[in-house]
Amino acid sequence: MNIHIDENNREPKYKQLIKSIEKAILNGDYKRGDVLPSINSVKSRFSISRDTVLLAYGNLKLRGIIQSVPGKGYYVKTENVSTKERVFLLFDEFNSFKEDLYNSFLRNLEEGVEVDIYFHHFNTTIFSKLIFDNIGVYNSYVIMPANLQDTNLVIEKLPADSVYILDQTQKELSRYPCVVQNFKEDINFGLTESIQQLEKYKKLVFVYLKEKQPKELLKGFKKFCKTHQFEYEIIRSLDEKEMTKGDVYLIPDDRTLIRLIKKIKDKKFVIADDIGIISYNDTLLKEIVEGGITTISTDFNKMGENLANMIMKKERKKINNPCRLVERNSL
């Protein structure tokens, strides 16, 4: 058997298998059309699990280096092992600021890296299926768990050294490298920076949908209001509250922002004078609409850059992405 695993090597055994087979092909030990050792024989030879062998063979198969013939086994398909790295990118949803993140990520990857993007839309079943269907298919797995429950039980099925957490993490996922927002501190910072403008208003109204918004965002909002003794209200949608002069709205999503602006106009109110607006996550739209909307936002371009650099350099870091307040005419 021209495959080797070093028990003293701390690199995962499935990766050792991949590299060993690649080396054997390059050395001419296996040529195109040659059959590889069976999964059971490799499993027995190195006392490893069947899943470990399947993970290695699955990676080589996906990259087009080997192929499987039902009932016969795995064969060498090509002697060219210099194939591209592939990245699995799982977003919660797609919007304008996630597009900035995605484009920045692509720009900062090395040439030839392939990225496939998927969306779970805050649905646990879809989240699980997308990951289970792609185990062993990619070199790296970038995952936005959002606020879904028990994501660690699904993510732990992936090779731990290939997983990166993005945007929002959970304590159960603390073992993985990440580029994330510190939602609690970021929103507290942004509101504190705008405190002089906020003092002109009577009440802070947070439109918060717990199914989609991070829990830490709500905690940071409450922390600010209690620390600075601001009257506040938390609602799920604009329909739950009659708009009154002196309200300042904190809006986490763009759809609600547009509805709020329309509602202000319908009431003949004036933005900033009668009703204040702070939106979460900056976009080009918010720079232009109604003379500019004040935002609290992480730097999504920096987030994409940090993530790409971490993957390319195989680093295992935990990065809190920077946040800023962008003051415009809506306060």
What features would you describe in this structure?
The chain is of the alpha/beta class and 331 residues long. The protein folds into three domains: 13-76, Orthogonal Bundle (Arc Repressor Mutant, subunit A), CATH 1.10.10.10; 86-182 and 300-322, 3-Layer(aba) Sandwich (Rossmann fold); 183-298, Response regulator (Rossmann fold, 3-Layer(aba) Sandwich), CATH 3.40.50.2300. 36% of the residues lie in helices and 19% in strands. Strands 4-3-5-6-7-13 form a six-stranded parallel sheet, sandwiched between helices. A six-stranded mixed sheet has the order 9-8-10-11-12-14, sandwiched between helices. Strand 3, helix 4 (96-107) and strand 4 form a beta-alpha-beta unit. Helix 1 packs across helix 3, helix 4 packs parallel to helix 12 and helix 7 (183-193) runs parallel beside helix 9 (215-227). The longest helix is centred in the first third of the chain and has 14 residues, at 13-26. The chain is elongated and about 80 Å long. The N and C termini lie far apart (71 Å).
